[in-house]
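Hello K.,

You asked for the raw outputs rather than the summary table, so here they are, unedited. I folded two proteins back to back in the same session to keep the settings identical. This is the first:
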Amino acid sequence: MPHEPASVTRHLRRLLELLAAGAPAEDLGAVAVQARDSGAGAEDLAEVERATEAALRVQTTLRQHRRREAELTALFDTAGDLAALRDLDAVLRSIVRRARMLLGTDTAYLTLPDEEAGDTYMRVTDGSVSELFQNLRLELGEGLGGLVAQTARPYASPDYRTDDRFLHTGSIDAGVLDEGLVAILGVPLLLGSGSGGQVIGALFAADRTPRTFAPDEVALLCSLADHAAIAIDTAKSMTDARVAMAELAEANAVIREHSVAMQRAEESHDRLTDLVLRGGELQDVAAAVAGLLKGDVAVHDGSGRPLTSVAVHGGAFAGEPGDAGGTEEEAAALVAAAESSRTAAHAVFRDGRWVCAVLAGQELLGCLVLFGRPDLDGPDRRLFERSSVVTSLLLLLRRSVAETENRVRGDLITDLLTTPDRDPAGLVTRGRRLGFDLDRPHLLLVARTGDAARGRLADAAVQYLFGSGGVSAEHEGAVVLLLPCDGTGPGEAARGAAGQLGRLTGAAVTVAGAGPAAGPRAIAAGHAEAVRCLRALHALGRDGHGASVAELGFLGVLLGDLHDVDGFVTATLGPLLDYDAQRGTQLISTLRAYFDCGGSLTRAKEALHVHVNTVVQRLDRIQALLGPEWNTPEQTLELQLALRLHLLSGG
């Protein structure tokens, strides 16, 4: 009995239902078995089998379409990630995760070259469980990745351990073994197309079991690798752009800062120059610099002496060392700092202050000193250095005027020393016209040096007197300096001048002092006394030193015009006289007897009618009062002369 057509239709409908439900291929194949079991005829059975084959093809096509749809969705999502690229690592992790998901592999990873180290490292992994594998580094040309990078082509290995198409190394094989990988597919990350493409890394998908990767899987991984390459290149371009923008912003800031600094420097220079052209003084320039730089400013001469200072923070000026004139150590430190500034051609920071040399060519006129600005930056530092140029201009102008005035005044000094009695009133009048009052008390200094430096001594004297109100002139082979009295004694003034003039000339300068003296005759007499003192210093071998007649002991008594006998006796025997007066002792008579007896203790004790031990004890007391050198030949001579004068005066 022939099979009813309705039964064939029933089986065909069943195939459609299973196909619509997405049933597996086994269920589709079971329909033909059911038709055979139900007794379908040969023709009907053939029809059902043909329909089953068609259903299987449709199922395969639908599966491919779904897979392609998933791949396209993943690619679109990746493209969206790239469009909103913010974090390169996040985009690369997303690409690797999608590669693993779409290819259905156990793991996926991406490697990039390390240009500094010269090898390749794991940038991103997904599904990895081995720390050794995650930290694996590959030398260029090693492993499957090396083959991909060298050929710029994808490679698939169904069994990595037995594949001999690439170079195996112990470290790579150990990492792959620790991860348990067997089948590996690697594709290059290419920038550009064709033979000119640049390999910048590789993308891998791997299974822990043997597997043959289909061509469409290779193509999918290549598409993801292209996106990864674009992401890396885009991130690099964005990084380069950010760096360029930062550099551009920094350059713009520097340009703006430089422009402001240049404008400020120009305005400051114009302001300082205008001060000089309007006849401003050093005090005005120092005040302007202090106001511009918000710090305390001082100007010192070439020997380190302060010429002027301005404190913007109130109170005592921070830059004045010690007293108003500064100590010799402070002056020497400033000169050394100024020399360093001259050598460096820039301001230098020394001992908490900025020092800039004030130069005329290579001649050190002085230095500009700034306190309170340890953080002096580039523009302000250049302004400070520019201020030293204006200061040097002002010092040169002042020195030129001073030299001219000094020459005119020098003629007056020459007349004063040679013919003081010819017209004393006329000399005083001439001095006043030159701004120099001879009726005021003055100190007389006479300076002399060796022949080699004699030509430099007159110029050094002008520099030394600069700003002090004094005057100098060459006279009879020496330089005479006339200084207004400021409370300094002639001996102290002579020693200070000897040191300063010695530094300015670079040679030993001997200076003798006298005074104070007021009026032409007294000044001329003081000069004569200073000349005698200068000769005495030379005779005593004290060249290069400074002193006054009063400091030369009995020689001063002989050389001085006033013959201060009482002063000499007091200066020589004063400690003994005071001791005898306070305690009723006889140290003066013991010392006189000791000298009268030629230094014999035995004869001295007989002359004094005391025990020899008493003489020894008194001499010990004399040594304690006069010092250990009281019995030297030079000291003995002065003591004996003082004892004679004391006796003659009724002592």
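The second followed immediately with the same parameters:
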Amino acid sequence: MNMTGARRRPSHARSCKMRPVRASLVGKTTAHQETRMAAPFDEHDPYLWLEEVEGERALAWVEQRNAESQARLADAPGFTALRDDLQAILEADDRIPFVVKRGEHFYNFWQDRDHPRGLWRRTSLAEYRKARPEWEVLIDLDALNAEEGENWVWHGAHCLRPESPDAPWRHCLVSLSRGGADADVTREFDLVEKRWVEAGFYRPEAKGGLGWIDRDTVYVQTDFGEGSMTRSGYPRIVKQWRRGTPMADAETVFEAEPDDMAVGAAHDSTPGFQRDFVSRARAFYDNELYLRQADGSLTRIEVPNSAHKQVHREWLMIELREPWEVAGTTHPAGALLLADFDAFMGGERELRVLFTPTERTSLSDVTWTRRHLILNVLDDVKHRLYVLTPSEGQWQPEPLAGVPTLGSISVSAVDDEESDEVFVIVSDHLTPTTLLHGRVGEALETLKQAPALFDAEGLEVTQHFATSRDGTPIPYFQVAKRDLEPSGAHPTLLYGYGGFEVPLLPGYSPGVGRAWLSQGGVYVVANIRGGGEYGPRWHQAALREKRHKAFEDFAAVAEDLIERGVTSARRLGVQGGSNGGLLVGNMLTRYPRLFGAVVCQVPLLDMRRYHLLLAGASWMAEYGDPESDDWQFLHDVSPYHNLDPAAHYPPMLLMTSTRDDRVHPGHARKMMARMSEQGHRVLYYENIEGGHGGAADNRQRAHMQALAFTFLCQTLAEGSPEPS
């Protein structure tokens, strides 16, 4: 079992991230969040009232804006057929049911037309190999919602490994969210009895979670009352809680500072390597990892706070985000180092270098199996997989056999405590996803392959490089007809993100294929700075006062598409969400002449108040502190503050969710209000459920996607006035 002090990528609860349209695009808030929202930091803002998430006046305003957008988009010819088509894709019976192994069973969460909120179910490996496996349903979320009068959305399950290999898996902690918000509840479920455990572990609704230590003990980090949450709105205190006792009486393990980001604890149950760890996230890229001793004392693992830290069996693995000098040797950012954990904790500093980045390569991910370590390397945004096996103190890399050399590849261990089995998921823009299975060192078998859900005949994927303002080559992928005529007339959708060290990798997108590519459109994904395509240096090149570099990169890709004759400004649309919403918001205010349409989803747009709203304070390491001199550069990248009533902006569609308790819906609401006031062309749609993903079920996802594609077709395929 891997124990990690800082995840390679931002976690679901902390990330400011929105996937492109191929993935899915609040309402209670805590008293703590209401206080944060009410902070009158910008007294000159006439639209502060729109930050009242469930305020009567604000919701009436939302209802009116939604009605306007529905009339313009949802009532348009072809919308219903498109929405139903997209929903059918999302609910196709022959899509791959991805699984995780727990004992002899493989578990899956599944949503379809008959079960919009979903089924948690399981089957055997032999059954899973069949085209249509038989599944044993454990939790029917739709039935549970009907029984309890709730709107639960699945947030996952954490199951306790039994002490004996022959014993069945039994105890699970299931997390459920109201409407898809990050805040959720945790309840205990019995896998043997297939029922909720009466008087079992239960955590009330809050951001946080429970984690098993043993069958009668858990770690809990949650809202314990006044003063127990950080400024970012995440748990500040972690406790050890025994079964049968009130949660209020749980023993405090660690208490972080109010200005820290979050705290957590976890138990490693690996036989022979049982350990407990406490993680203190001081800021987004500043994490301390502690070993918890038997007496409850904590010993810090002395590696840079910015590094990603992982403990597996006898090994401590360190992935650097900044250079680190040890014993006279300076290891570069992006390097992967390995040490004997016990020796390191005893003061030794013998480090083995497992990976060193180059100008064109970076480490995308690492995966442990029982005896091997798999490195997933990006080489100009193309995956290369290598297996490292300790042999007489040596770690010799060998290519992982049986995987393609093109497209996006991810690897996960089936059970890293017991075997060297792996699941490998392979996909690219035009090839349906394939699930492979096997043991490291042996041939991989194809377990499942998704069907083709759009006609890719005559289409091709090409990689290009644009030159940014400072001369940096910026890669991007283009999906278009083979031998595309350079007429400048092709409707083109450009997608980007550019933040939090998150890379945008090739992947099969039936929605994009069916709604855009099949209609003759061109689809482009830009790998701009701020992301993780070339490791920490690529991300850090667009941090804080350098954020404008990401915008310059994105504009350079747009200019390259126009210069190459792929499209023209009035035929070029741009889309992004969350941090990508900040990106496309800046495209609107900085480069309006380059675009004919802007789709801006669950966005950050008000950089004056973002740190006061919900999880915003946790992102100051990424963007800066508006209450310091940082406001000088933050003002420059705040779309809400740079709207010009005299400017001629391309049409914009703003989309968000009332239940988004990560990026506050007030960003999109206020942008809509100010743009309307200034007379710009703008539409707005706010889904009542969905959290930061924008939708709580497939019908909502299909509706949101259909709105976006209909808007793009209206403004690009039919043409809009040339920006002036």
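Confidence is low (pLDDT under 50) at residues 5-39, 719-724.

Happy to rerun anything if the numbers look odd on your end.

Regards,
P.
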